[in-house]
Design goal:
Layout: H1 2-19, H2 29-35, E1 41-42, E2 45-46, H3 58-68, E3 99-102, E4 108-112, E5 115-119, E6 154-156, H4 167-173, E7 180-183, H5 187-192, E8 200-203, E9 207-211, E10 214-219, E11 239-243, E12 248-251, H6 260-268, E13 273-277, H7 292-301, E14 307-310, H8 324-335, E15 348-350
Parallel strand pairs: 5-6, 6-7, 7-8, 12-13, 13-14
Antiparallel strand pairs: 1-2, 3-4, 3-15, 4-5, 9-10, 10-11, 11-12
Helix pairs in contact: 7-8
């Protein structure tokens, strides 16, 4: 009877992985053949620019599960964190300053030179292929719902992990989005979800595109990819440079610290504003997620006038307290004289204004 039950559970798991659309689709053979010509792709996998340990195998991960699921009250807010509500009418004026709205974690709406650009728009409640497989969002609601957003000119994705590329969000954004800009291979996920191939633009590291008055460049990060059980490294990952008529912006995506930040700073800096990964880290995987002190230093490396810590304040995906990222990065930023800004979720981040003040909204009233 136990064997039968185990067999049924395995069958359910296999069917879920193979039939659930959330997993997306791997690049086809033609794409893989094209990728093989790249110096950072071999044997069916993309590679980081520098040696990066990925030794968190299944055995180690299973041993870590009790610690990960430990009932630690510091990992989530013990109060309702403030979320500023956004009126859709405030988003449609064409003469707006360059500004952003943060949705928590790594999701943003950027309004620049008359364009509406979404960055890693994960608007779902749980960063997982099924709600039972992950922990829910800290806040009860978003600053504004997808259906209330204006027409989106571009969606930019940094990589295909569930806390950045969300199936349900893409489906809801599909009809109001003109174009999707993604790392190599990620277009296969979008195509499997019904996005027209003509709307998908895949970029390699250091590849650049001019979209009307907006300059885009896709740059390296030190991370990995994969949505299924056996497709790790099958698609590329990276960071974005977005340059308008007067503002130059950097979006780090996910990744560990490395010399690529200096290279990005030399090639595309200085930046007026940089959104830098700062959260979901651990010493056991610091090569693929920066520690907060490294986040501040990376801001210096890329020559950012002001940095903003992201990848926190929405989900618990590591074992640190939910406020540890912001508390530590603020200390390091002050130590190295790096300007830093930590806005409330939903508030307008006006890049034409003063970004020097920090209200400690994450402290319980």
């Amino acid at each position: 009877m136990l064997v039968s039950l185990a067999g049924i559970l395995v069958l359910i798991g296999v069917l879920f992985v193979n039939l659930s659309p959330q997993f997306g689709a791997d690049p086809d053979e033609a794409k893989k053949a094209a990728f093989e010509k790249l110096d950072h792709y071999s044997n069916g996998e993309f590679r980081n620019l520098m040696p990066t340990s990925m030794d968190m195998d299944i055995g180690k991960a299973v041993k870590m599960l009790p610690e990960f699921f430990k009932n630690d009250p510091t990992r989530v807010p013990d109060f309702e964190i403030p979320v500023v509500k956004v009126d859709s009418l405030d988003l449609v004026n064409k003469n707006l300053p360059t500004r952003l709205i943060w949705f928590g974690h790594s999701a943003f709406l950027l309004q620049i030179d008359g364009k509406n650009i979404l960055l890693d728009p994960m608007f779902g409640d749980v960063p997982a292929p099924h709600p039972l497989l992950g922990k829910g969002r800290f806040s009860k609601e978003l600053p504004i719902e997808i259906e209330q957003l204006p027409q989106i000119d571009m969606v930019l994705f940094s990589h295909d992990h569930y806390d950045h590329l969300d199936y349900e969000s893409v489906i809801r954004l599909m009809e109001k989005t003109k174009a999707f800009y993604v790392p190599l291979g990620v277009g296969s996920h979008l195509e499997s979800w019904g996005i027209e191939s003509s709307k998908i633009h895949e970029l390699d590291w250091w590849e650049e595109q001019q979209v009307d008055d907006i300059f885009l460049a896709f740059a390296p990060s030190r991370h990995f990819s994969g949505r299924g059980l056996n497709n790790r490294f099958s698609t590329l990952w990276g960071s974005w440079i977005i340059k308008g008529e007067t503002k130059n912006i950097y979006f780090s995506g996910d990744g560990g610290y490395g010399p690529h930040f200096n290279e990005i700073g030399e090639k595309y800096g200085p930046f007026d504003f940089a959104m830098m990964e700062c959260g979901q880290y651990n010493e056991r995987w610091k090569e693929i997620h920066m520690m907060p002190e490294e986040t501040a230093q990376a801001g210096k490396d890329i020559k950012a006038n002001v940095i903003m810590p992201i990848h926190w304040a929405a989900f618990s995906l590591a074992m640190h307290s939910w406020t540890d990222p912001v508390e530590r990065v603020l200390i390091k930023a002050k130590e190295i004289d790096q300007a830093i800004y930590v806005p409330k979720i939903g508030s307008f981040i006006d890049l034409e204004g003063n970004l020097s003040s920090t209200e400690k909204w994450w402290i319980k009233p």
